[in-house]
Amino acid sequence: MTGAVRVIVVATVLSLVQWVEPLQAGEAIRVGVMDQQMVMERTKSGKLAMEEVKGYSMTRQKIINADEQELKDLEQSIQDPSAKLTDQARQEKEEQWRSKMEAYQRRLQEFNREVQQKQREMVVEYAQKIAAAAKAVAQKEGYTAILDKGNEALIRIVLYYQPTLDATDSVIKEFDRQNP
Questions:
Q1: Any idea where the domains of the chain sit in the sequence?
Q2: d(Cα 110, Cα 60) in Å, to the nearest integer?
Q3: How many CA atoms lie within 13 A of 55 on its CB side?
Q4: Residue 131 to residues 18, 128, 168, 170: CA-CA distances in angstroms?
């Protein structure tokens, strides 16, 4: 399970647990399920947030690609037999290449951290918004709790449920209502 998914699962479960009212003896328990990933993918603001992170990542990737090309070009100029570089010129270019390679590696690490941070921030923000929408749906439709069912690609949290208990579509509608 990725860190981002873990954050979503934990945040949702903790958020939902705090809203579950103490039950009186004999009260029926109705538990719904939802797919948080589907909520993110199908809601208007969720789609926009994912596109924003994707655009942020692509912008950084273009910079990295340009740096890679610059390194390749410099390396080719060093290795080009027709260039007829003096030993000193070759050493200077090699030093320039090493320096640029170190800068490239630092930039790559920095960009990866930035993108991961942006993703984490989005996940935390939307986990709270999804939890609020799930709470509203639970209160309207009489659920004691709504759990994230997870998915096959990451981790399946709920192993079995009756399809009538899937509240994903209701949560999507409520999410869009709360987050226009």
A1: 3-178
A2: 10
A3: 6
A4: 11, 5, 12, 13
* Model confidence band, residue 174 (pLDDT cutoffs 50, 70, 90): very high
* 114-148 residue pLDDT tens: 999 999 999 999 999 999 999 999 999 999 999 99
Q: Which residues have CB under 8 Å from 1's CB, separation 6+?
A: 9, 154, 155
- Out of 3.30.910.20, 3.20.20.20, 3.40.50.300, 3.40.30.20, the CATH code matching 3-178 is 3.30.910.20
Task: Annotate 53-87 with three-state secondary structure.
Answer: HHHHHHHHHHHHHHHHHHHHHHHHHHHCHHHCCCH
Q: What's the pLDDT band for 4 if we cut at 50, 70, 90?
A: low
In the predicted structure, residue 14 carries a pLDDT above the cut 60: no
**Residue 120 phi, psi dihedral angles, 5° rounding:** -60, -45
Question: Taking the CB of residue 7, how many other CB atoms lie within 10 A of it?
Answer: 15
Q: d(Cα 57, Cα 89) in Å, to the nearest integer?
A: 37
